[in-house]
């Protein structure tokens, strides 16, 4: 822990900049919308792409919070996205940044065209554009950082994620009201317990790949500490989706390490058997006396998700092949707000497949899935371990809708993971050393 802090102190000025931006947003509100982009410009001129990316991830994380004190992050994240995109598009050293988004081109053409019948066309346009920019910007910045300052990038990327989890755990004992969702479940620095479960899951995958391929980046004790932070956060949150997705990733990791082909086949069988496991889930949990922890009283209705899924299916059949674009699901669900409240449901469809199908039709869902699959295949050329990510991801997005949104703290991590694994500069055996100087023009 002390060694981690010492390493962080070497970059204390940059960490103080992040804290200053947060404080500026908390205490001055709209002033941050002007000051932060100007400060970002100065950092970009110095080649500090690392801290621009980390700041973006941090603001996305704070924007997920339900605490009013972080309300500024909701508007600031869009401003950061636009500023980062401008800086990157005008940066002369950008390389290979467009390869990630190419498989999604057909999907986005359809998504933009679908907006013509969207009752909230401009809102849908903003959401679609933000997704385009995320898939354009983040892979390009990751490429630059891996090529020119790999170890520095990977270390502080993991350190920031661990710090978010650690802060949430500390506040659980120091300021419990700040991190306990509706007085019942732990949510850490995220907006709700399920959000913390997803955050723990995606960060688990990120840290596992970084620590496995860069064994000297963290000591064994540091690795144990980070895994303890992830484990405690997931357990305290009690997110079924987050816990089971993490377990599926871990199982896939160990099986694929032993034998890639046999591991993939085994994981496919395990995933296909998911319904069988869930059919006996109540009996298993009851036998282990974990009824309260897994909230069996909500399992029948999936915390109200069955109700909203029925509504989603009803409208999917009305727009089966093609639909009305991003955010159309919000228009549909708004019509049933009173009905959902009677059944104890708040939020969205809680299923990325259904959400994307409802928004863009079956054709859009297929094109969206194709884009992600192509990027998984690109990464698999370097390591078969990426399939462990896919199996965990398939479960996570089946119970949450986070993959259909761009400006959240989860999708960006998945993009970073796939961008890293599909990049030869990530692998020390291919490129033993990387420069640690900022990426200047």
UniProtKB/TrEMBL annotation:
It comes from the Bacteria. It is a multi-pass membrane protein. Residues 226-368 form the O-antigen ligase-related domain. Keywords: Membrane, Transmembrane, Transmembrane helix. It is found in: Membrane. GO terms for cellular component: membrane. The chain crosses the membrane at residues 15-36, 48-63, 69-91, 98-116, 128-146, 153-175, 195-213, 225-255, 261-282, 353-373, 385-403, 410-427. PANTHER family: LIPOPOLYSACCHARIDE BIOSYNTHESIS PROTEIN PA4999-RELATED, TEICHURONIC ACID BIOSYNTHESIS PROTEIN TUAE. This is O-antigen ligase-related domain-containing protein.
